[in-house]
Amino acid sequence: MIDLDYLAYLETILTDNRKERFLEVLENRTKHFTVAVEDVYQLHNTSAVMRSCEVFGIQELNVIEQRFGKRIDKQIAMGAQKWVDIIRHDSVMGCVNSLKEQGYQIIATTPHEQDCTLEKFDIRKPAALFFGTEKEGLSEEVMQNADGFLKIPMVGFTESLNISVSAAIIIQDLTNRLRRSDLDWKLNEDEILQKRLDWARNSIRNIKSVETRYYEENPRE
């Protein structure tokens, strides 16, 4: 349950421009698509994918840390970790099952005999877009449990792209198509309120002392 009084209190600390910017950005945020990165060894690649999610409006990034548990590279992410929800998973199947339970189809982004090119991908159903490791690609667990396969059409000699480049191309294309569609892709009212609260807290440097002062003045019943 969102404490609307607490949200209103925090927003009195923010500038009008900041609050307006939050609302503008939230208008383009979506959970219709989510992204999952699997055991990415090069830390800057995970951080760059996060930055692409933020720039193109994907609200949630799932990070599978089955083999390479690492922190997000804040320098590469350029502050994106303040605005994107990072959901960590310690196993591939834990991530896959969680996303399927939420109603997502599992889409493996890799060339495959039953793959679909980017421009032909059906955006109507919520999808979790999986990206694999730099050298090995996606695991067999993801491939066996995938509901579909997606690839970027290429016409050169090179057969693959860096994961961060692939993610940026795919996310930008699909979110642009989504915003042009008549699908119900936006965050709902409760999700928007929650993000306003989270982002307000992330924007206030001394949030712990502000929060303590608020609840001293407004004790919970």
TrEMBL record:
Domain of life: Bacteria
Catalytic function, reaction form: guanosine(18) in tRNA + S-adenosyl-L-methionine = 2'-O-methylguanosine(18) in tRNA + S-adenosyl-L-homocysteine + H(+)
GO biological process: methylation
One Pfam match: SpoU_methylase
Keywords associated with the record: Methyltransferase, RNA-binding, S-adenosyl-L-methionine, Transferase, tRNA processing, tRNA-binding
Broadest EC class assigned to this enzyme: transferase
Secretion signal span: none
UniProt keyword Thylakoid, yes or no: no
Entry EC number(s): 2.1.1.34
GO molecular function term, any single one: methyltransferase activity
Residues involved in S-adenosyl-L-methionine binding: 109, 152, 161
UniProt domain tRNA/rRNA methyltransferase SpoU type: residue ranges: 33-171
Family: Belongs to the class IV-like SAM-binding methyltransferase superfamily. RNA methyltransferase TrmH family.
PANTHER family: RRNA METHYLASE-LIKE, TRNA_RRNA METHYLTRANSFERASE SPOU TYPE DOMAIN-CONTAINING PROTEIN
Function: Catalyzes the 2'-O methylation of guanosine at position 18 in tRNA.
Protein name per the record: tRNA (guanosine(18)-2'-O)-methyltransferase
Gene source species: Flavobacterium flavipallidum
High-level lineage: Bacteria, Pseudomonadati, Bacteroidota, Flavobacteriia, Flavobacteriales
